[in-house]
Design goal:
Blueprint: H1 7-10, E1 16-21, E2 27-32, E3 34-36, E4 41-46, H2 50-57, E5 60-67, E6 70-85, H3 89-101, E7 121-134
Antiparallel strand pairs: 1-2, 1-5, 3-4, 4-7, 5-6, 6-7
Length: about 140
Amino acid sequence: MIPDTYRDLIDGPVVVTLATVFPDGQPQTTPVWCSYNGKHVAVVTSRGLQKEKNMQANPRVSMVALDPQDPYRYLEIRGTVIEITEAGALEKLNEHTKLYTGKPTYYGHIVPAEDEGSRIHVICKIRPIRVVTSG
C-alpha cells in the first residue's frame, strides 16, 4: 500500500505525527517513532498515555510524515489499530531507539536505566486503509 518511493518517510528516522481521537471527538496529535513491516505500521507507547487510551476507545488513526528536506513531500496514512499488545514492546522500542537516535537501548540512553519497569509499553499495530502521497 505504501509506495516504495515514500518508504523512506515511514521506515525512519522521520518523526511522524500520529492523530487519534479523544472520546469527545476532538483530535489529538503526537509526534511518534514508527516502523513499517510492509503490512502494518508499528508505534510503541505506554499503557495509560492519552494516545493509547484514545486508540483503545477508537481505533481509527491518521499519520503524517513530512520529508525533512522538502515539506511539500509527505506521506499520509489513514488506518485502523488492529492490535495493541505488550508482547515484544520493549524490543520494538529498542529497535526504534536505535533507528531514530543511534543509541542501543531506550533505558539507559534516552531515559535513566532505573526507570525501566516504571511503564508498561505496548505496540500499536496499524493497518493502513488509505495512503495519500504528495511531492
